[in-house]
Give the backbone structure.
Amino acid sequence: MGVFEADLKSETLLAIPELYAFGQKNRGFSLCIYLDWAIMATSEALLVFFLMLAFFGQVILTTDNGLYGMGTMTFTACVIIIAAKLQFIELHNKTITCVIALVASIGGWFGWSLLLSKIYKNNTIYNVRDGLLERWGRNALWWLTLLLIVTAVLLFELTVKYLRTCWWPTDVDVFQALEKDRGSWERIKATARGETTMRREGELERMRTAEEQEGREREVQELLARPRVMMHREDGGRVGDWDGNDGSDGLRRRHSSHEEVELGAGEVIEMDDLDTGTRGRVGTVRRSLGDVA
């Protein structure tokens, strides 16, 4: 059932991520929680046994209140109580699987009891054969006592849960109540939508920055990949050019408040916009051009 359980909705956790601290700080299980479970289990076990004994086991004028009838009532009460507690009291997110599990648990036990009462052959010690169909199964007191036991234990469970939630609520209890309030739920959803929008905007901004950086990298790589050609001027001098032109549109340096590199016909990249590796490669090209010149 834990696969389908959700203590809080996803919008609540997105709006208040501090609620994840419940699991991070191991608040779901501790020595105090274990002792609470043990005390509750012991109390309910005593309640089941003594109610069965008082209202059915010690009654004189009734049909077949022997050991097997009393034991079957006790175990049947435990099966019903445990199934109801797990599927409806403890679970917050109730689905159709809860009903299926409840019917399968209780129905499976009664099905086995019916089968056992038909196939059991020897009643020497326990009156098993035909007990459910012919003897204590036809006794109205047996069914009324079973109903009383189940009702009493479930009321005890609900009362303890109510008092615990009112006097010692956890963060999960508080926000479960807020999710049921329409106004609070609308504010939680609005906060969750805002968080989602901010995250998406941040991701888009990072993507744009990465694309711009990649574009600058490509331009510099194209510049570095151009072939260098040695040309002779009419006055006998030499000039280094990238593509065989007269050098007017080639790589040049300009000294100003921001150092720039000009690419091709009027394309300019500020050195401050390049990363360290790219600036180093451009510097190497500059030194090579200086040597050539």
Observations:
- The radius of gyration is 40 Å.
- The CA atoms of residues 98 and 158 lie 18 Å apart.
- The beta strands are 229-232, 238-241, 253-254, 260-263, 267-270.
- The chain has a mean pLDDT of 76.
